[in-house]
Amino acid sequence: MTTKNPEYDFTWCPGCGDFGVRRALEFAMVERNIKTEMPMTSNVVVAGIGCSGNLVHLLEGEQPYGFHGIHGRSLPIAFGVKMGRPDLNVVVVAGDGDFLSIGMEHIAPQAARNVNVCAVVMDNGVYGLTKGQASPTTVPETVTNSTPFGKLETSVNPLDLYLTLGVTYIASGFSSKPKDLSKLIFDGMEHSGFSIVHVASPCTTYNDTYQELKGNKKLGIAPTAWAIPDDHDPSDKNAARSIIAEGGLPLGVVYRDTKRPSLDMRMDAIRARGGQQDVATLLAAYDI
Amino acid sequence: MASRSEIVVRFAGEGGQGVVTAAEMLARAATGVGYHALTFATFPSQILGGPTWTQARVSRFPVLSPGDAVDILVAFNTHAYQEHRVEVREGGVILLDPSVTPDPGDTSHRCISVPFDELAKQTGESRAANMVVMGGLSKLINMPLQFLKDFVTIRFGGREGVVEANHMALDLGLAHLADEDAVADLGEVDKPTYDQLFIKGNDAIAVGAMQAGVETFVGYPISPATPLLLYMERNLVGEGKFAYQASSEIESITAILGAGFAGRKAMTATSGPGFTLMGEGLGLAWMTEIPCVVVDVQRGGPATGLPTKTEQSDLLAALSPAHGDSSIPVIAPGTVEECFYATITAFNWAERYQGPVILLSEHSLAERAQNIPKPDLSTIAVERRKIYEGDNGFLRYDSWELSPMPVPGGPGAYVANGSEHDSFGDTTHLPARHIQMTERRFSKLKLLNDSTYESDNTNANIALIPWGGSKGSVLETYNLLRAQGMDVAWYYTMFLSPMPEDLLAELRSKDLVIVPELNYQGQFAGVLRSLGVKAEAMTLYTGLPFRAGELSERVKQRVAGAGQQTQAVRA
What we know:
The complex is a heterodimer of chains A (288) and B (571). Chain A is an alpha/beta fold. Helix content of chain A is 34%, strand content 16%. Chain A starts with 17 loop residues before the first helix and ends with a helix. In chain B, helix 13 (336-353) links the parallel strand 12 (330-331) and strand 13. Classes of the chains: A alpha/beta (288), B alpha/beta (571).
């Protein structure tokens, strides 16, 4: 239950990675409000359906606007909000099932348009809210309640996918490092164009990956999370590819293209060419 | 013969032969000089080739429907001649391309060979074949050629060579038929004293949306709704405006909900298949209470169905597009003129009750070009949602009825939530909340209490009530029946949900309510029966509109049958 609303009857499981993502997003929005001198109400958080989608209800403190829509459609809703009101800061929060399975079809068009929206994707490699089915990022051969004989599909590599589709800001983060994550989200919101911050956010109930991400010295397990070195040039697509090819969980900004104008900038340029005709003129085109 | 005050001309050939533009051109030119005209078009679902035909009905008086029997057929190829000559009335004229050999046994029609292309070439403008046809027609219908020449001068204004060539084509066409008798005498007319438009249904919706203040339009190409998308992309370009082609209808509906949530007047347009994809999004619009207008320009269905034919078979889908408890308002314009006004009402309703409104059009209406009185924009009321302007901490859904809507950027942040929610918009499963919110959503429909309806001869016990684009054909049927002395009542409304209560009360008092509609199931008749009306459908599912003559015969037969049945029961 949230402190702001005692009637709200959903919360995440203890240890859920989404708690860290929520804190990071709150930090980033507050930071942005200070920097831009805009009120919290100039932020809109568009959520999908799943454990991740409930983030919009669990935000603490001063509230942004929220839109908790339907499964898989957070991106096109955000597209509509942003293009209707380019002055708003529009953030999408979604999970790997919502974003990469049912909502996969919406990533490519936003990337092609370079819509000025920041998507924070909480990847736990499983469908949590429906109690443990395989998702696109579930490791192959994993036995889940929907894959009794092991997962038969390969898993999607989200960062590789985003890079291929032409997303202009791609960052990779970890829910256990909310300070770093907050910086990645802040930069994503500041980025003029489509940004995705893909976050490893483990599910303690159905797919607890904390140990492999963080490693365990006592057990001799090396962490799969690793920091992207400072000398990485995010504007270099080949370098970004190399980072992704390293495997594991890279932490930091993988790719950033600041040259492509965002869709709202393109629309502004079109509007500058000439305004809209009034209705009387439009109607006169049909005069007899 | 020469006293006929109206004429029906059909153009038949292959797609790409100018068949489509011919009917429109004749109608446009005719209305330009004061006649009334209405076109009908049906296409093959391909770009080049494929049998196509269009029809123009030109009259000294207002035109209600595409017309029954064809007076003049212009056949550009043999298939067109063979296919359509049965539709030409006894004594009618068939203009043939020289490549077509008329059936020697065809003695009931006057067949005239006209070398359209060859004559056009003589003008130096090979695309002027249509004008050759027009020149010939002006002779056959006794319409002064100068009218057409004036039209050409305006249409191709400034392009001197083109104007000259087209004038020459008109002269050549007329000269070729100089010795032919006219089939009708439209004669000279006075222009109506009021201003007029010559416009198609789709365009009337587009301009209506502009007048209503549409700000965001997102759509996906689909026949026959595509022209709405194209219009918006070209014209909805001002400050704060946005029109865009989406990647699917799912994107369209969810994007306009995003824009509506952000405070914009938002709209999308689609046809049956896309409308089905929008079902979940429409439920979300109802649940989150976001104003938006969704146009469904119906075609034949289900699935891909008949993409380029007309049908009225999406009514049940429109009345119930989403799962769960919802009742989304539906407005179905019946004429080109109504397309304009219905669109404005759709926006006003959406803004007033804060929710989605469905505008149900159809192929024959979308492609129908017609002269209509020019709307007086100064008399049109445009509504905008009640916006919350207080402090933060406002509870968006804290009442059992409509409340002001906060707009992002301004005070009153809340969560627009597709899950059942509490006052703030947070998810809840409490029974009391579901009761409150459900009743809240339905209570708002009461605000849509300004719907109207038409009626005539209301004392009769048997009534006719069409819906949507069948209005014109059925009104013509009604006029025929009344002229023949039948005691039948006329009712019509474009407000299909919620329906005017007074209209329902009147319909419930009738012994028989006949509902002509273009679908197999008799969808509207079924709806009326569920509302306690003794309604009976009179259906047609050919992909083409009703013909007044045929329909009036069916009504007469049904009424005669009903009389017998009543007697039998009494005996």
